[in-house]
Amino acid sequence: MMAASLSHKTRAMRLSQYPIQTTKETPAEAEIVSHQLMLRAGLIRRLSSGLYSWLPMGLRTLRKAEAIIREEMNRAGALELLMPVVQPAELWQESGRWKEYGPELLRLKDRHQRDFVAGPTHEEVITDIARRELKSYRQLPVNFYQVQTKFRDEIRPRFGVMRAREFIMKDAYSFHADAASLEQGYRLMHEVYTRIFTRMGLQFRAVKADSGPIGGDVSQEFHVLAASGEDAIVFSDADEYAANMEAAAALPPSAPRPAPREPLAKVATPGAKTIEALAKFLNIEPLRCLKTLLVEGDGTGENAVVALVIRGDHELNATKAQRLPGVASPFRMADAERIERATGAQAGYIGPLGLKCRIYADHAALAVADFVCGANEKDMHLAGVNWDRDVRNYVAADIRNVVEGDPSPSGKGTLRLARGIEVGHIFQLGRKYSEKMSAVVLDESGKEVTLYMGCYGIGVTRVVAAAIEQNHDERGILWPEPLAPFEVVLVALGQQKSAAVRERAERLYAELSGAGIEVLFDDRDARPGVKFADAELLGIPHRLVVAERGLAAGRLEYRHRKDSESVEFPVDEALAFLKDRLGR
Ligand code: ATP
Ligand code: MG
Fold first, then answer.
1. Residue from 169, 219, 228 whose mutation best tests the ligand 1 pocket (most atoms within 8 A of CB)
2. What is the pTM of this model?
């Protein structure tokens, strides 16, 4: 009976023996609903910026998410392993990312002054394992995965576990003998992710993505759709095209640029440092004012900065700009000193005329004639400026964010915008890591071939927050059932006073938990209002109420978290009734 009583203990819990308090007040530090509710419900606690503890109630949900992920990864034949969080710098030097990764990479020294990193991701370590363990094409394809802590020194940790510095990721890495096998493995992971997020009861969408510092050519992100999402995602209203804003191509305008009509003229624009102020002052549309942004270049002298010119009503897309030759990696805006050195002026009055640095002009900016731009002189702008007539040393590029209504790059329909939370990301890395780290196997003819590689991440801690962001109401969390910490909350009302309530509730608790149902038993000496409010805040899907009046009539009360009315049923049918509701 030992095993049964143990599992009984993990399945069921008495609130009277649970020391964590819920709160009514919305914590001031929390900007978004999921963060507020996770704190109020006592799922997590902040230790320090971007560092969170998972309290028992929250951990139950986290473990459920992990279990779904593990089941689906295992079903797809992936092999679970576990790699260290702390990784030697040598591996990162080998891959080149010791230099490329930037300040998000937490670097540490041990007592011997040797360099290490707190792993933000594990491509280097797994490639090292692959080059040692994999010798022959016969061992391929293979997919290794882990559920492990990551550390990224995020510039702006926020929204609780949504963008933390320490978080848990499921990361998987596949190895293949050729590109076709990699594509197959990638498609399989696409299916697995679709199953995982579907099983979690989430509304999501897969979108084309930028690969970022992980690298590779083909990648897609899985986004949970939610208004508060940090990412803009775009999709065509006429076909399957969907992309992250970072990766969505803006097509060059189809209409040719009008011929110049105005002469070039310098105009005094005292204090007009923003496009808004400038357009107002000159009484013209913002789109005729071109913005010139200076970013750091990857060289010295003239190459210390790069100028990016976009239409005044458009936004710079840093991800696209980052890919241009001459732009520093990681991407940084130029500071005041660099701007002054390159232009002789300050931000707000910069324009492309006379600049010696590289100039990239966005396609949409290139379609504007007789435009206004900075004169590289304080309080001065130029008007009637025209490409080719006045500015010649530029390169055309796509460097802006798409906007609602732009033509879809797929060629069909126009683009629509939505918000999403990135919960998963899959990549075809190709040979990026295996080439640098010499990960090879012997092919059929005994010849060495470099491994093809894919990698696949899910933000396990983030997905919990995302689930709340998508599923809540004014009273609290509305857990999708597969993620709820408990299936049923059993609320006893007035059991201190009523022996009948107490005895019946205890019997139900034993019966339900004995039947393998995950029951949270609210046996506290508390007012009904407090108990109901907590049950709703915690978002437990099924609620069973034992009250004196109902019991006297031989009845119990049931309500689903998503229902607005309770229903009554005979007290002896509790187990059968609940099993039916739980779909068992
Ligand atoms: P983001 O664009 O949100 O910073 P990323 O593209 O850098 O994420 P990946 O390298 O693709 O992230 O990591 C895989 C998954 O890990 C992401 O899809 C996301 O769900 C999760 N993740 C990444 N950074 C964080 C973080 N700071 N806190 C929590 N989860 C994270
Ligand atoms: Mg990503």
1. 169
2. 0.89
